[in-house]
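call fold(seq) -> tokens
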Amino acid sequence: MKVLVAGGAGYIGSNMAAMLATKGHEPIVFDNLSKGHRSAVGHTPFVAGDLADYELLIKTLTDYKIEAVMHFAALIEVGESVQQPLKYYRNNLSNTQNLLSAMQAVGTDKFVFSSSAAVYGMPELLPITEDAPKEPINPYGETKWAIEKMSRYQSRAGMLRYAALRYFNAAGAGANCQLGEDHRPESHLIPLTIQAAMGKRSEIEIYGTDYPTPDGTCVRDYIHIEDLCRAHLLALNQLTTASELVYNLGNGKGYSVREVIETVKKVSGKDFKVVDAPRRAGDAAILISDATKAGSELKWKPKFPDLETIISTAWRWHSDHPAGYPD
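ret:
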């Protein structure tokens, strides 16, 4: 299948494009490189463009005879979304509406959307199932939920087949550890902690040590990037017959901030300074997914659920790319 990977120069998108190619599909990357890295695309066909450019979308979908779209081209910084909400509504929501409009115009009807556990907000029941209330607490989560609803209505109007995949915390490196996580600035715990182990950061802070968890620090569900991408492939295949798919993607097991830090120390063999800091507003004590539905309907199961394995692949990529991608 010819698949447009929007945001395909980013962390998840580049891994997805690589996996599509290995499985016999034809990925075409579409990215404005505001956050992604051209060198992560490799030899995959690449279109430099923004999702706000309707005419370029029409041309790309037509010229490449695109049969399906995978959409990863979102801004993802929760804190920034609170400070600059319109930036997030424009990029995440308005641009996705533009993409769906272009797809409708040319007759491309398969859509795999990178959603987020942020649609749930601060859930009361754990682990989180797909039926949990959708109560996002920031503009980032709101835009993801709005796109899901927009996709659902478009589907029920008979013009879209879509899968909304709600991630928890993607981590690790894929494609034999050749495609890793390089956000600038970085905000995710595992790469930040690896930076501390590499001496690129003077310390790592733990925001809150008095949560009702076994060691007092927040607990999160981490999923290896290749497990995440495999679920996208399975969902894409299902869209030949299904019109609405919604799945959580996670390991169903949580690891605390302190466990992540200690595992990075073990994998790297490095020690570094760890500082206890006050809680951050909006951080839930525990966020763990229930991915039973993806397991039963997609026959999906994480191959790399172990935290040490996930961090080992990330450490290998960062060790081989100490300055990140050479863009």
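Residues 85-106 form the longest helix (22 residues).
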